[in-house]
């Protein structure tokens, strides 16, 4: 009662408040009349109805099935409340009911409307359905195992390196299609991937490029490209002499050389298996100089930018 008395006092005191309340009163009355007229007349509404194809596990659909049907429905306005407050109806179509016996699933608009009528209000009129028909190829042949080729370009930053081969979660996939198409497919490719200036190991899921008239399982694979930072190392290496004839000894001064190289950080603690070589056959005995070129011999593939502090050393030939 106190609340009502307070409202009456405010209405007497404020003409503005009275105007606002009067306006709201007419809005409510108008809404009631509009609702009454709308709910008792025919209204068209567009619905998105999910669709599902029921099929055996060994059957694979070879082209995309629409996720939903766009259905225009005419019905009494008040009946549309059931669509607003309930889960959207869904239709399930059995593959065997619409198979043409030639590995095709075909359903025209009349059959789509019939299937929709079974899940909509009985009084509703279906005005239109999009798509108007569904035509899907399928196969029950076993999958063909084919290798996966990765289309990947990887470039580490200048002070990093790819240390190790690319790793794939699997090197082959199954392809499902008709016999003729399967006979022509011998490999599949991933979509192109390009990663530049990498400073850490790359881990990516890459999608396999689609094949017209075929289904690939799985549709993607995981790849790992190991990337490591490079560190400069320095080491003294003994120089070896090659191709010296029997009875000939080649003395070198100095007999070792300093080598600098870049190595992945995981190999810093390992012994650098690098060799320095002087080839007896490369000596120019007619030259006034008694120097011979020092060449790089064996170098592990992981090492980069291998270079010697001296590119030549002096020699003396001794014969026995």
The averaged pLDDT comes out at: 84
Could you tell me how far the N terminus lies from the C terminus, measured between alpha carbons in angstroms? 131 Å
The secondary structure category is alpha+beta
Shape: elongated
- Based on CA atoms alone, the radius of gyration comes out at 40 Å
Query: What kind of oligomer do you see?
Result: single chain
Number of helices: 5
Which percent range fits the helix content?
10-25%
**Number of DSSP strand runs:** 25
Write the topology of this structure.
Blueprint lengths: L1 H12 L1 H25 L2 E13 L5 E2 L6 E9 L4 H5 L5 E4 L9 E4 L1 H9 L7 E6 L3 E6 L4 E6 L2 E5 L3 E3 L4 E2 L3 E5 L2 H6 L3 E2 L3 E6 L3 E6 L7 E3 L2 E6 L1 E16 L5 E6 L2 E9 L11 E4 L11 E3 L1 E2 L7 E5 L3 E8 L1
Parallel strand pairs: 1-4, 8-13, 9-14, 18-21
Antiparallel strand pairs: 1-3, 2-7, 3-6, 5-7, 8-12, 10-18, 11-17, 12-16, 15-17, 18-20, 19-25, 20-24, 21-23, 22-25
Question: Could you explain the architecture of this structure?
Answer:
The protein has helices spanning 2-13, 15-39, 81-85, 109-117, 179-184, and strands at residues 42-54, 60-61, 68-76, 91-94, 104-107, 125-130, 134-139, 144-149, 152-156, 160-162, 167-168, 172-176, 188-189, 193-198, 202-207, 215-217, 220-225, 227-242, 248-253, 256-264, 276-279, 291-293, 295-296, 304-308, 312-319. The N and C termini lie far apart (131 Å). 13% of the residues are buried. The strands form 7 sheets. Strands 10, 18, 20, 21, 23 and 24 form a 6-stranded mixed sheet that branches. 18% of the residues lie in helices and 44% in strands. It is built from 5 helices and 25 strands. The chain is elongated and about 115 Å long. The mean pLDDT is 84.
């Amino acid at each position: 009662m106190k609340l009502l008395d307070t409202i009456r006092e405010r209405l007497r005191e404020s003409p503005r408040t009275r105007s606002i309340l009067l306006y709201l009163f007419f809005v409510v009355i108008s809404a009631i009349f509009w609702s009454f007229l709308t709910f008792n007349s025919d209204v068209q509404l567009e619905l998105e109805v999910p669709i599902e194809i029921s099929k055996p596990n060994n059957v694979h659909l070879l082209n995309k099935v629409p996720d939903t049907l766009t259905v225009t429905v005419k019905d009494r306005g008040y009946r549309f409340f059931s669509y607003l407050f309930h889960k959207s109806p869904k239709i399930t179509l059995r593959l065997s009911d619409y198979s043409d016996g030639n590995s095709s699933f075909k359903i025209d608009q009349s059959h789509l409307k019939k299937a929709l009528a079974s899940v909509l209000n009985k009084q509703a009129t279906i005005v239109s359905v999009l798509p108007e028909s569904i035509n899907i190829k399928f196969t029950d042949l076993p999958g063909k195992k084919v290798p996966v080729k990765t289309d990947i370009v990887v470039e580490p930053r200048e002070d990093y390196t790819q240390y190790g081969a690319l790793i794939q979660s699997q090197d082959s996939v199954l392809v499902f299609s008709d016999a003729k198409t399967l006979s022509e497919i011998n490999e599949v490719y991933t979509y192109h991937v390009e990663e530049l200036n990498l400073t850490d190991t790359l881990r990516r899921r890459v999608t396999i490029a689609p094949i017209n008239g075929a289904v690939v399982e799985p549709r993607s694979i995981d790849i790992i490209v190991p990337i490591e930072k490079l560190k400069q190392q320095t080491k003294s290496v003994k120089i070896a002499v090659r191709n010296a004839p029997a009875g000939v000894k080649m003395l070198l001064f100095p007999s070792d050389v300093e080598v600098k190289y870049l190595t992945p950080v995981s190999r810093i603690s390992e012994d650098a298996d690098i060799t320095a070589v002087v080839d007896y056959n490369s000596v120019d005995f007619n030259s006034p100089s008694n120097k011979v070129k020092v060449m790089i011999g064996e170098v592990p593939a992981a090492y980069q930018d291998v270079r010697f502090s001296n590119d030549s050393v002096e020699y003396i030939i001794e014969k026995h």
